Amino acid sequence: GDVCNMINKKYNEFLPSMQSAEDLVSQVDGLSSNIDLLKAGIENEVQRDLNVAVAEFTELKQQLERDSLVLSILKKLQEFDTAIKEYNTALLEKKYVAAAQQLEKARSSLKMLESRKGFELKILKALGTELTVQTQNMLYHLGEEWQKLAVWKLPPSKESSSLESVMHSELHLHTVPSKEEEIAGPPVASVLQAFAVLGELHTKLKIFGQLLLKYILEPLILYPSLQPFAEEQSDVFILRFKSEEPNLDRSSPMEVFDKIKLIFEILHKYLLNVPLEQPVEDKKECRVTLAELLGDMIWEELSDCLIQNCLVNSIPTNSSKLEQYIEVIKSTEEFEKALKNMQFLKGDTTDLLKYARNVNSHFANKKCQDVIVAARNLMTSEIHNTVKIIPDSCVALPRLPDPGAGDHLKMRKTSKLLHNDMVNLENETKLSQYTFSLPTCRISSSVEKLMELAYQTLLEATASTDQCCIQLFYSVRNIFQLFYDVVPTYHKENLQKLPQLAAIHHNNCMYIAHHLLTLGHQFRYRLTNILCDGAATFVDLVPGFRRLGMECFLAQMRVQKGEILERLSSARNFSNMDDEENYCAANKAIRQVLHQLKRLGKVWQDVLPVNVYCKAMGTLLNTALSEIVTRIAALEDISAEDADRLYSLCRTMVEEGPQVLTPLPEEDKNKKYQEEVPVYVQKWMTFKELMIILQANLQEIVDQWADGKGPLAAEFSAAEVKSLIRALFQNTERRAAALAKIK
């Protein structure tokens, strides 16, 4: 029964809800049609009203933006105006930092105004002008104040920067705070901070820094006699110089550092110990001091000046003094530390300290530099100052120290190392006298000195640290490379024009080549330990020097040959000598050639080694004889008178030719070389045979020929002899018979 009741109850409830669902459906239908009506209505009317409203809203919004822009502009204009007013007040009260800050405020307001696009105000131009005028006005006031604070008394600019004029430079600092100022902070701070706010501090300090360098710091480095001298009076601190007799012509780095430290201490105390409020975005306190700014500006120039004029000069020139240099390095470190404490210097180990610490390498560089400069001076000096070198001076080389001997080697005079032809190489083995023999001749004294410089430098190298040793060894190689490049170019004109110089240069090159053969060998114990695979040698340079000497001398020989041929070309081919004029021309040509050879023989005398001399003079004499033979052998007709005159011309050559060979200044010693003329003059016998032909009859010529086995056949070909017979003799049967025998 209960179950039935439940179902009934549910069902009863269900019926009404069923009813209400049906009602809902019909309501929905009604609503739906209402919506359709409304939709139509909206599309027609409301949409129109809405568009109007949006347009109105946009207009209002733009109006509002315009108003707020105008408002913000008015606000900025007001800010600008206030700032300028407050600036004026502050300036009158000499509150420079406040005044400067107000100017900067006005500047930023103006910037904002100028950045508004589409809003160009006529007034902005006027405001800009006003701001510029006020800024200049403020800078002028600050400038006046600054000039009162730091007063330079300088010598008239026309004077050179001599010691005299430097003595007149003074710097007066009116920054000694008086009692009542001490509370408010010194005026110097406010002036400099105001400059900083206006962004002008840099310019002011730069000018101050340049004056400081030019009139105080650099003179102290350059003139050892200058002493800085400071006196404090009630309201001013004066910095000036007094001059004292220096004990040396260069002051030591220690003294210079002390003087400069003093200057910086004074500046630090009276002028530069001012913190600058730097405007910083990240609110971190960034306080740069003036000292740091000034340091940044002048340190580089100051340290260059110290290096160039103080440290460079203090680098020792010989290895024994290197130890004492530690002092200099120490004082450089202390100098830098002091400047850091005063905040002039920021970083660590500046160039100055690096330079001082690098003394070993500078020592080597300085040494090499000196060597190259000395070498270059020798190379560009005159060639014609000569010394005579003689091979019999047999000097053993000095015993070299063993590799560990180090610095205690006393430098030996090296001139005795030179000119030794019998070189005592290993201190025991003697070589034959001629192994490295160099014949007696003259060389430029500058080249002898150059060689001494090379030996001296290598000696020093063997006593130096490894690094220095290597550098010195290569600078000696450089001396020779330099000679090879410089001398031929530098003396070019003279070597072409002056036969004597060409000869001396030839000797110079041979002399250098001669020494280069053994130069490395003598120092090899010490050098090869350091230079890998026995590179301590100069032998590779030898062929180049020999070639250099030969080429220059051969060029001179070509010039001389050219002149001989030129002179002989005026001899009218030696034809028709029975004509007086022709004979005179030929005679003159021969005289000129002999004169040229005699002069040359004198110029080269005692300069060239004898064997070179004889070969050279012999070659030139040969050129003349050979040319004469060729010309005469080519003649087609020689009359009896012609033949006599040609003979006498040839006789002049044969008699006077040998006399041009005068290799030695002692006359009696030259005979030997003059008698050996056929050895040096290839065509000598040919010339003598030609003279015989000019005087001989047909039979004598045939006898001289001797079926091609006689002396004549040794000098002339059958064709040449036949040609001469045809020129000298009339066409007869006897001539035909003689010609038939020449074959």
Automatic annotation (TrEMBL):
Keywords: Acetylation, Cell cycle, Cell division, Centromere, Chromosome, Coiled coil, Cytoplasm, Cytoskeleton, Endoplasmic reticulum, ER-Golgi transport, Kinetochore, Membrane, Mitosis, Phosphoprotein, Protein transport, Transport. InterPro entries: Zw10/DSL1_C_sf (IPR046362), ZW10_C (IPR048343), ZW10_C_2 (IPR055148), Zw10_middle (IPR048344), Zw10_N (IPR009361). One of its GO terms (biological process) is mitotic spindle assembly checkpoint signaling. It is found in: Chromosome, Centromere, Kinetochore; Cytoplasm, Cytoskeleton, Spindle; Endoplasmic reticulum membrane. Transmembrane segments: none annotated. Residues 2-84 form the Centromere/kinetochore protein zw10 N-terminal domain. The keyword Transport applies. Its main location: nucleus. One of its GO terms (cellular component) is spindle. The keyword Endoplasmic reticulum applies. Residues 142-379 form the Centromere/kinetochore protein zw10 middle domain. It is a peripheral membrane protein. Residues 588-742 form the ZW10 C-terminal helical domain. Pfam families: ZW10_C, ZW10_C2, Zw10_middle, Zw10_N. Residues 436-566 form the Centromere/kinetochore protein zw10 C-terminal domain. Interacts with NBAS and KNTC1/ROD; the interactions are mutually exclusive and indicative for its association in two different vesicle tethering complexes. Component of the RZZ complex composed of KNTC1/ROD, ZW10 and ZWILCH. Component of the NRZ complex composed of NBAS, ZW10 and RINT1/TIP20L; NRZ associates with SNAREs STX18, USE1L, BNIP1/SEC20L and SEC22B (the assembly has been described as syntaxin 18 complex). Interacts directly with RINT1/TIP20L bound to BNIP1/SEC20L. Interacts with C19orf25 and ZWINT. Interacts with ZFYVE1. Belongs to the ZW10 family. This is Centromere/kinetochore protein zw10 homolog. It comes from Thalassarche chlororhynchos (Atlantic yellow-nosed albatross).
